[in-house]
Amino acid sequence: MIYFRSDYSQGAHPKVMEALAKTNLEHTDGYGLDEHCQNAAAMIKDLIGIQDCEVYMMVGGTPCNITVIAASLRPYEAVIAARSGHAYFHETGGAEATGHRIVAVEGVNGKLTPELLDRAWAEYEDEHTPLPRMVYISQPTEIGSIYSKAEMTALAQKCRERDMLLYVDGARLGCALTCKENDLSIQELAQLCDAFYIGGTKNGALFGEALVIKTPQINDHFRWMIKRQCGLLAKGRLIGVQFEALLEGGMDSIYFEMAAHANKMAEKLRNGLEERHVPFYSCSQTNQLFPVLPTGVIRELEKDFFFYEWAPETNGMTPIRLVTAWGTQEAEIDAFLKKIGEILG
Amino acid sequence: MIYFRSDYSQGAHPKVMEALAKTNLEHTDGYGLDEHCQNAAAMIKDLIGIQDCEVYMMVGGTPCNITVIAASLRPYEAVIAARSGHAYFHETGGAEATGHRIVAVEGVNGKLTPELLDRAWAEYEDEHTPLPRMVYISQPTEIGSIYSKAEMTALAQKCRERDMLLYVDGARLGCALTCKENDLSIQELAQLCDAFYIGGTKNGALFGEALVIKTPQINDHFRWMIKRQCGLLAKGRLIGVQFEALLEGGMDSIYFEMAAHANKMAEKLRNGLEERHVPFYSCSQTNQLFPVLPTGVIRELEKDFFFYEWAPETNGMTPIRLVTAWGTQEAEIDAFLKKIGEILG
Amino acid sequence: MIYFRSDYSQGAHPKVMEALAKTNLEHTDGYGLDEHCQNAAAMIKDLIGIQDCEVYMMVGGTPCNITVIAASLRPYEAVIAARSGHAYFHETGGAEATGHRIVAVEGVNGKLTPELLDRAWAEYEDEHTPLPRMVYISQPTEIGSIYSKAEMTALAQKCRERDMLLYVDGARLGCALTCKENDLSIQELAQLCDAFYIGGTKNGALFGEALVIKTPQINDHFRWMIKRQCGLLAKGRLIGVQFEALLEGGMDSIYFEMAAHANKMAEKLRNGLEERHVPFYSCSQTNQLFPVLPTGVIRELEKDFFFYEWAPETNGMTPIRLVTAWGTQEAEIDAFLKKIGEILG
Amino acid sequence: MIYFRSDYSQGAHPKVMEALAKTNLEHTDGYGLDEHCQNAAAMIKDLIGIQDCEVYMMVGGTPCNITVIAASLRPYEAVIAARSGHAYFHETGGAEATGHRIVAVEGVNGKLTPELLDRAWAEYEDEHTPLPRMVYISQPTEIGSIYSKAEMTALAQKCRERDMLLYVDGARLGCALTCKENDLSIQELAQLCDAFYIGGTKNGALFGEALVIKTPQINDHFRWMIKRQCGLLAKGRLIGVQFEALLEGGMDSIYFEMAAHANKMAEKLRNGLEERHVPFYSCSQTNQLFPVLPTGVIRELEKDFFFYEWAPETNGMTPIRLVTAWGTQEAEIDAFLKKIGEILG
């Protein structure tokens, strides 16, 4: 069985495993107060070119998203997100569990725009309506598209104009940054938003994300917030050690090498599917593809390949999700394309 | 200044005031455990023809909605509501404050349909998505339309099929029940849903709503829930006394007389506006009308009349809301129609 | 049956009823944005001698307490209160429902002291422990005692030292202010705390409390908080109208007259019980008395009088609560003392 | 610097690291739906002798505690715990963040008793008071003591009598089970409670706890609860793989070997301290010791050893916490005893 199911179906990059093995018997302080976490944080501050911020080593993406939301907002305040955004669509109401509405907006190819934010604000009235105060986006989006520098800049400007915080979910940030069409550097991204995270789980870590928060109001007692939201890892250093290994070398690190590889594999797959005139559910530029196939074809593919159906069947066609990752091998792409070629004839 | 701003701009029907005055010096037990509340509950059970239910005297509509939501759902469960529904649109995230998402759906003339519920369910996946478990509707809706017997029956059936609870916000229930086009009796409504309330605030009470809950799972420790949600009134009898006065005589009570009057005043107003070819934002059958007028006309009207603008201006036209109530006088309608006639020429 | 069960067993003072009747047919704006609420707020600002504050007309005491807690604290922050304090003991976890712990401390005669606050702080560590940030007290306390000027001043000073907010629940504030032993004026109280409320429900209103908030951080979007906590009354003016009637004349108003009467009735009762050597559960100085009686005696008394048992039986003795109010008549006290005299022999 | 600071200052047992390395490149399904998690769950069901239960692989102890509390209780229900219990004392109000009070009770040597539960219930009244519905204990307790079979049985019986759920935090369960004085087997423990967890983080795992839930009401949609509480790990198999390695061989596995070693090291340390007549803050039977030392002595010790101060100084004496673990070496104990011998003279 070949896996295109997710970018978290394998363990970690061998260098990450090595680093964990090498530091295994060290004694350190707990809860992320150790030197590895501090060192990883310093590496990240250098990478993004901002020293005046805090970096937190978090267990996963949902803890990042929900803890930031809970730490940022007053009780009556709300988040605006695309309907397809992870925090709305795939976190089981974790945001609402902290008391905050996510105002869900139909995105444009998975993305929010200044106009969509204005439209959401048009529904805001007064003390009878939750007050939008944060914008949640993902880079790349859940459906693989990326914000250009111009798009992200316009969004950030609208946020400042409306007095809203801008938060960027970077679960697959590596794939956005190494995407051929990308023109937004990590330094620029960091400048434009209030907080974002560099995802490890979906790019070669065992687990863990590095959350960067610039805005003092969010940083205020943020470690209290992590603990309250059940996200403070006792052996917090495990995340620091992994990010040290992932980011050694900065833009030349294995972190970006792995992401570039995932993109390259996705491109090969996309090209192969396009040659066979397979339509796509979204216009993805990164490591997730959403081909739309006859349901019968999907049943055949499922015998050899493992992937998700992404949306309900319409007129006999069903969108599936194919994800490539750092561990995807060219032969696996070939096998998929060969098989689909055989089925489609 | 003539008020068409709301159906809660005046105090209570004189008979309600009389009842409060008459019972003022009685000593009773607190928190709704008195004989007036019990008597009002018994009157309501008779009125709806269901004895096997509980009736709670609540301070207001938002406390009804939010307490029922909080009492009904497990933490990961969600409510489906029309985007225009009060619990979504005008309660400042009170539902989310109890940890629950409201999945907002564009309604059809303010109403949900079985198809819309199916579509909301199509987005439900598994443990990563909040589980829809309650449907919130208003009868009449926020924009004045009513569910016919066939529509409400179909909705209730879909709810049972999907294992969802059906809750009906009856803030203006009197106006639905006395609407000329209505074919759904209060007894039938009560049969079809799990819980609903008979609104007092917007139909001649000082304040207070009578919440009827049939389903044992919601009734379980419901008084604990009322208190926890800050809604237990010390002199709870005040609500019981008012409902005794409002509902004396059942379908011939002042409750329904007042609602019928409000509808009649609205009809006169609607007819007058239609004669002047004023378009409407929604197809209202009850005591709220939403004419769409040139913004300049609105500025003129505002000099003599007090009302809300309902939605943002589009192409120079703005929808306003005109509300009639038990205390609206025919001369006030005449004055409005005369004025608008003068302005429109 | 004679009621010593609570100070909310009757309706409102006749002058309150008159004011409600007189204004009943007025049309006003809703949600407390009317002239009566504004006028009552202005009267209260004059009464307390502070103009730079906000006054909110609230439906009840629990909504005051919980909304203030929710509006004041960041998610990881906690309240310190006496174990007997209303917000801890009698609000069904309403504070926890907003996500905040109440650290319960055994009070000294129902009161907190600077030493008790220090002791609570000694348990505070770091990000693993909720951070105490508000002190909740009642004046008078739940068991009838009052804070002297020196005690309240010391507490307020400790709060400032520890960077904690001080909130005073004034459900029975009138009885504290008119208590013979009281040396703390309402102006001084208002100066010492961040927020407090003047209770109406337990002192001659139908319902309603006037909440005074001085501290900008709590006032920030407080009306959004009221709505979110389900406490915004549609006909908000009802509370304004009542407070206009209650406080007309300031310190010579019926508000203080009623409270003084309740205290006087309690004093007569206390004297009578002391003459009969009845011991007391607490040292009450106001309108609630907690005599401890043989359980058999209580069973006899219950035949003619209605009151609460206050705490579990110990060695055959049970504390009861006797409450006097604005409507308590001297003859009712006489009847009670006569009866207890007969029983005790 | 020698660490007695915690039992989570090192990484994992070499066999755990090996298992992670060996399985690293396997592709599996995410979120704990893989074969390693299923296999570990089956091993645990066999170990505890109960097949009719669910086993969840959780990221940490706080996620176990808080998710179980949130999944078990209706909104108005509360937990009873010892004041020193982890869920009350060291989780930053995570329980309150889910809306539930923890009623904190002074324990007896860190333990709850049936009498203490009865006393907590004596404070429960009616709809004005949160309803105690779950008892939270730790085995061993936070201060190192263990419940005997008789004690745990009596507590479980009281819980059933009061219709309360019994939950056991087993962060250091291995140390309880391998303690010389222990007479309560894991099978018996599992029989007596509704849910408990077998702690990995503090006994040789990188991270992870195996949560066992027997009671259907808690198991209902529990994976939804894990996700909502931000605790669902993408590469969930990491925990399964670790528990496979930890528990291979059942009672003869490295899990119990490591715990026994930690206890043995603690015993040596305790004996050494007792010989020097050092008093203890609590009567610990497991791997945490709480000697009380002159603060000056502590300052000396801190130069070579790393540990926590546990409680505020009293009369010049301060309790500290010394923790041994699977990686503690006999020479480290000797060094500590030697040093303290030198200081105390």
Textual characterization of the structure:
The structure is a homotetramer of 345-residue chains. Chain A has 15 helices and 13 strands. In chain A, the strands form three sheets. A seven-stranded mixed sheet of chain A has the order 2-8-7-6-5-3-4, sandwiched between helices. In chain A, strands 9, 10, 12 and 13 form a four-stranded antiparallel sheet that branches. By secondary structure, chain A is α/β, with parallel strands linked by helices. Chain A is globular. Chain A has helices at residues 14-22, 35-48, 61-72, 86-89, 94-97, 114-122, 149-161, 173-177, 186-192, 216-219, 222-228, 237-247, 254-275, 295-301, 330-344; strands at residues 2-3, 54-58, 77-82, 102-105, 131-138, 165-169, 195-199, 209-213, 288-289, 292-294, 305-306, 308-309, 317-323. Chains in contact: A-B, A-C, A-D, B-C, B-D, C-D. Chains A and D meet through helix 1, helix 3 and helix 11 of A and helix 1, helix 3 and helix 11 of D.
Provide a concise account of the structure shown:
The structure is a homotetramer of 345-residue chains. In chain A, 41% of the residues lie in helices and 16% in strands. The first copy, chain A, is built from 15 helices and 13 strands.
The tally of helices of chain A reads: 15
Distance between the termini of chain A: 22 Å
Give the helix level of chain A as a range of percent: 40-55%
User: Average pLDDT of chain A, to the nearest integer?
Assistant: 97
List the quaternary state of the chains: homotetramer
Task: Report the sheet-strand fraction of chain A.
Answer: 15-25%
Describe the main β-sheet of chain A briefly. 7 strands, mixed
Largest interface chains and counts: A-D, 51 and 51 residues
List the helices and strands of chain A in order: EHHEHEHHEHEHEHHEEHHHHEEHEEEH
Q: Given the helix and strand composition of chain A, which structural class is it?
A: alpha/beta
- Unreliable stretches of chain A (pLDDT < 50, length at least 5) are none
Q: Could you tell me the number of beta strands of chain A? A: 13
